[in-house]
Structure formats: C-alpha cells, structure tokens
Amino acid sequence: MDDQYSEQVMEHFRNPRNVGEIPDASGVGNVGNSxxxxxxxxxxxxxxxxxxxxxKFKTFxxxxxxxxxSMVTELVKGKTVQEALKISNHAVAEALGGLPKIKMHCSMLxxxxxxxxxxxxxxxxKKA
Amino acid sequence: MRKVxxxxxxxxxxxxxxxxxxxxxxxxxxxNASSVHAFGREVRLAVDAARAKVxxxxxxxxxxxxxxxxxxxxxDNMALRGVAHALRGRGNHxxxxxxxxxxxxxxxxxxxxEGCQVTYLEADRNGIVKLDELKSAIKKETVLISIMWANxxxxxxxxxxxxxxxxxxxxxxxxxxxxxxxxxxxxxxxxMNIDLASFSAHKIYGPKGVGALYIRKGTKLTPxxxxxHHEMGKRAGTENVAGIAGFGRAAELxxxxxxxxxxxxAELRDYLYTGITSRIEHTRLNGDLKELLPNTxxxxxxxxxxxxxxxNLDMExxxxxxxxxxxxxxxxxxxxxRAMGVDPVxxxxxxxxxxxxxxxxxDIDYVLDxxxxxVKRLREMSPLYEGGK
Lengths: 128, 389
Known about the structure:
The complex is a heterodimer. By secondary structure, chain A is of the alpha+beta class. Chain A is 45% helix and 20% strand. Chain A has one domain: Alpha-Beta Complex (Sufe protein. Chain: A), CATH 3.90.1010.10. In chain A, 45% of the residues are buried. By secondary structure, chain B is an alpha/beta fold. In chain B, the strands form three sheets. A seven-stranded mixed beta sheet of chain B has the order 2-8-7-6-5-3-4, with helices on both faces. Chain B is globular, with a radius of gyration of 21 Å. At the A-B interface, α1, β2, β3 and α2 of A face α8 and α10 of B.
C-alpha cells in the first residue's frame, strides 16, 4: 500500500454511511483527541437479542478517519455484540482496500470507538 | 468540471515563454558551459545571460552575486551550512525563527548536532518575527541570522529591511529565504543589507529543479557541493543549462509583471476572503491582512479537519492545501500555525489558498459557490460542532 487512498476509502469518504446521532442509543463511544487530529463518536442501537440493529457516527478527522468511521458502522450492523467485539482495526482497513501506512492509526480509532460504545452498552445493561 | 488551481505557493505553472527559452538547450545547443570550444562558448553565453536577468530581477549589484542551484532547498542548505562552516573559527551561534520552512529548520537541527548553537525566535500572534527579541538574541558568537522574507503557509511578511539594519550594525551575516517573496514583493537586494537570499524558479512560473542563492560580494561561504570550478567555485556540477535559461526568462517576466500582478492578486485575494467570511461562520484568518503576500490567504474553519476539506474541494476540481506541501506527509498540525499560538483544533482546520497569474474572478466565484456546502456538510459530521450552534 502506498501513500494514496484506495478507491474504497475515497468512495466512503465521498458518501459516508450512517452519519449522525442515535438519540436513544444503547451505547455511545467517544475516542480520540483534537490535538492529534481525530475525534470519533460512535452510537450503537442494540436489540433484545444482543444484535446491533443500527450504528451512527460523527467524526472530526481526515479522509481516512471519516472512511473508517463509515466502514465500521457498516460492519457492525446485524452483528451481535460479541461478534462486533471481534472486529479489529485491520478488518476495518482491509474492508476499505487498505490504508496508507501513516493513516493506519485512524483504523485504531474506529476499533476503539466500537469497543468504547459496546463497553458503554454493557455497563448500562449491568446497571439496568 | 472546472479546474481551479489555488496552490501556487506549492508550485506554479511554467510559462510558455520560459519553456521556449529552455528548448534549444535540451537538444541543439548541448555543449558544456565549461568547454573552451564553440559548443561550450555558446552555452556559457546562455548561462551568463540568464544570470544577468536573474540578477536584474533581484536587484543585485552584479550578476556575479547570483549562483545557480537546484532550487530553494539547496540554496537554504548552502547558505546556512556554508556560513556556519566558513565562520566556524569566529563563532557558532545562529539565530532563526520557529516559523521557517523545513529547508531552514532541519538544516539548523543538523548544525546543532555539529556543535552550533541555534536560537529559534518565536513569532508573534500574526506570525511576524519580533525585532526586540532578535536584538536581544544577538551575542558575540553570533555569525548568522536566517529569517524568511515571507511565510509559505500563511503569506505573512517579515520586516526584512529592519532586520537588515539591525544586522548591519553588528557585522553578522543575514540570510533570508526569499522563495515566496520573489515575484510578489518589490525589492532591490543591493539596498537591503542582505548577505544571502534563496530563490526558486518554479515559484515564479519557471521550471522545477533550478533556483539561486544570492551571495553578496565579499560574503564568506564554504561550498556545499564540491567538484569542478563551476559557478565561480561556489557550486560544483555541470550547469542545468535549460533550467537556468528558463529561470532567466521567468525572472525577466516576473520583473515586468510584478506591480500589475500583485495588485490584481491582492484584489482577488481580498474578494475571496470577504466572500468566505460573509458566507461561512466560525472562520479565522491566520495572519494579518496588512502584512500578507498579495496572493496568499490562510483561513481556519473551526470544528473541521483540513484534509477532509482539501479532498472535498479536490473532488470539485479545486486545488488548495493544508499548510505546506512539504509537510502533508505528517500528521501534526502546522508548526507555523502552532508557533502563532493558533489553537490545535483551529490549526487542524486551516486551509491555504494561494492564487496565481491565471486565477480569475470566475475561479474565485466558483470556490465561493462550492466551499460553503462542503463546510456545512463536514461540520454536520463533526462531533466538535455542537458548541458552534
């Protein structure tokens, strides 16, 4: 992979899926900081069978950050929480046809946001 | 799709005139300028003629003060390393600023490893070097001051004339990276108390791969590239004759067109800035409009990250950049904007628009049509934007 974005990255960047918020989200993940350049907020809606039925995101970041955000929301939909926990940053990057080396940390952001949203869901569930 | 190139501080489109001036030296006139025979003499004349044109454009006292190099970066390297090495016996202190181009900053870091002491002056909020700090940084070991004339990312202009006066009294060499100032600001180097100045042809509608270092007569400098006696013994290597010829022609045209072009560009630049601020909320001008190159505008779009704006504009045929092209491989926000005290988030969302000879009012109108919806869409996607509502 060279330092250019793949066609899939650009396609997701042009038409990001699932941008927005879920007001009654089951879990919300907030990761990143603006000093390093990327912030991602991921919302998931989980049904009674532990299946993620919806996911939305808001991201402050470069092309790779937006594309990986978009891709991770696509990947988790329809998966159970346990299945979603297994989604790695490499899986997100791979689904996008790879990322430039210098941008691989953006895929970490997507993985961390997903884990953070699931953590949030699980801790809320425990309390309930 | 309309194509609008607003990245002229990265590079410019070479003029047809410059290309025409180069063509003979690519094929038919191929001698080595150092050769005694007629083939060589003809080429020597071409190099000398180009040198005279560049010297005239820069307002040098004589053409012997112009040394051709491979470009601005080499000129910066040659000036800093050349002076540091030549004056090693006299002192080892260099003063520069924290908003310089990497071609100066990274040379300074290298010289530090070699045992030089370097003071990095902090620019003020508008990106301008503070004269009183410059004065107080000077010590008896100081041999060189290197301050850029105009900043590549922001277009901010430093008080080079005033720095020249300070330096003159102290007998310290003064180098300026004038790559962005050339062709945009009027000056006569012979009246400026500047000892060394770096220039690049491709920023003034000339070819890439050629530049110059102005070396005022009598300035001591150790050559960077060693070999034959080319360029008056200051820079070895067979001359890039076609490039030099193109540079000469570009310099000649830049001199003729400077006044009218600067006025036109400043008008278009102001039109762009007014257009942006009247259509888009939460923006910030990086720099002070009164002290900017006529062609450059660096604007921060709060709550946004620069690359996503650049990519979106690119999809609409518009070329702009985040900071300098040389730093787009890094993830850190611009060192220039950070040095100016710009908040890291605002620095991330800053875009440089650099206009050029071919920029038209229609181009700017197109940008003003395309940009607001992009900013709106990206802000709706930004988790930081809620505060701005």
